[in-house]
Amino acid sequence: MHTQLTRFAQRPLRELLIAASRIALILFMGFTISACNDYDDTYQLTISSENGSVSVSPEADSYAAGTTVTITATADSGYIFSGWSGDSSATDTSITLVMNEDKTLEANYDVGVVIELAEATNGQYTVEPEVSSGDTVAFGTEFTITATPDDGYILDSVYKMMEVVSGWEDYVDESFSSPYTITTDADDARFKIYGGDLDKYVIGAGFVAEDTWGELQETLNVVYATPGSKSLKYDVYAPPGASDLPIIIIVHGGGWSVNNEDIMRGQARYLAESGRYVVASIDYRLLTDLDDPAPTKADMMEDVYGAIAHIQENAEVYGGDPSRLILTGDSAGGQLSANTALLAPYIGDGDYTGEIGSSYFSPSYVPSGMSVEDLKTQISDSIIAVAPSYGAFVSSDGIGEMDPAVEPMSNIPDASERVLPPYYVQVGSEDTTVGTENVQAFATALEDAGQEVTYVEYEGASHAYFDWKPAPDVQEVFNTVGKPALDDMLTYLDAIVDALDSDE
Asked: Is residue 89 part of a domain?
């Protein structure tokens, strides 16, 4: 019995020892595997980045568990970093990761706009918040420009400028006073009707000598109508003490798709400084201004007639005579100003069909208590001269097609049916935008119809020599070509006014 009990007791003990050995081995192996995982496991970091680049520090094909990695995103020119996606939703350009698993991230970028700071001469300007040339900023960013002229100089304007057509045309948003706040607005790309995205603004301030302009009475930013989303304005320049002077109305150019009344301020001031005229520079809806419905050249004519009506209504305030109007304009404004007398019989509430004789123009502003019919008579009787400069008078490949109802060439009446006011038509011999042939053809057609017309061609002159912008080369053209041409225009207009005065 004793022997049997001993054997019975020994068997479990041996089995327990074996089991304990197995458990110890398992525990030891588990510890070893765990320790090896902590030491040997590696993880992958996958990063994608379009419209920018990403730097990684430290760089490696894979990372041991627990490694700290710093990644930094850099946007390409014209883009701005907007944040990370994937295994991080951070918005900082530089973030730190701990590699405890495989990670995938994407650097995201939004389209931005590059800021270039124009070099200032004859003054200084500051920009807040601070920005450096070449920086890319988000659309919707506001910058306040504060300008300080040097002694002997005055502010011309503070501005943002965007190139619309390479080497030819710019869109400018400017103010004649400082400080001025500009906004990087993605909608400004609408002015680039010839293609291309908005990728750069030039911002700055321009200064001119104190004696650049004489003393004038200025009434700026007069709103005359809001037929769409855009408030239509005009500026008035008058000699001090002006009273009952003839009124020159300037219609700006810009391919019907860019610019506003500001671009004609050089011409307006120079004409007003003659002391004989009150001068108004008007704006109108542009083809690309996102008005609803989209503006047409017929709408623009309605705006021109509306501006004329508003100026006539307030002529006494400006020192002008509403019964003596002279219309002028350049390029696209040449087409519109030329049409004011040509199309005056079609001012009315009827429909616009695009065809001659069945298209009517309802002014965007009509004085309270006045019928459109009475306004038609008032405008028709008040225009004493028309002086369109290098205007788009005839449809062509370069200018584009115009409806017959708004093409000046197609609307010239024979003098036996209706006598037009005298026309003074000019162009530069090197104008490749409109072309001398276009302007010559219009002048010849007026003459053939028995209408009074004077044609002037300036040897060596190109296009847009009446423009004034915060750009030294543009101002130089105005001073050397534009001013002499305006002297000739004034001589012509003075003779007309003198003749009318002598008949009274």
From this structure: yes
| Radius of gyration, CA atoms only, the chain | 37
Each residue of 304-356: pLDDT tens digit? Answer: 999 999 999 999 999 999 999 999 999 999 999 999 999 999 999 999 999 99
Phi-psi region of 251 (alpha: psi -120 to 50; beta: other; left: phi over 0): beta
- What's the half-sphere exposure (Cβ side, CA atoms, 13 Å) at 316? 1
For residues 192 and 199, give the distance between their C-alpha atoms in angstroms, rounded to a whole number.
Answer: 11
- Write the pLDDT tens digit of every residue in 364-399: 999 999 999 999 999 999 999 999 999 999 987 767
If asked whether residues 459 and 320 sit together in one domain, one would say yes
By residue range, what is the domain housing residue 124?
118-184
* Residue pair 209/153 in contact by the 8 Å Cβ criterion: yes
Residue position matching structure tokens 């296009």: 463
The pTM of this model reads 0.84
User: What's phi and psi for 241, nearest 5 deg?
Assistant: 75, 20
Among 184, 201, 223, where does a domain finish? 184
Half-sphere exposure (CA, 13 Å, Cβ side) for 77?
A: 8
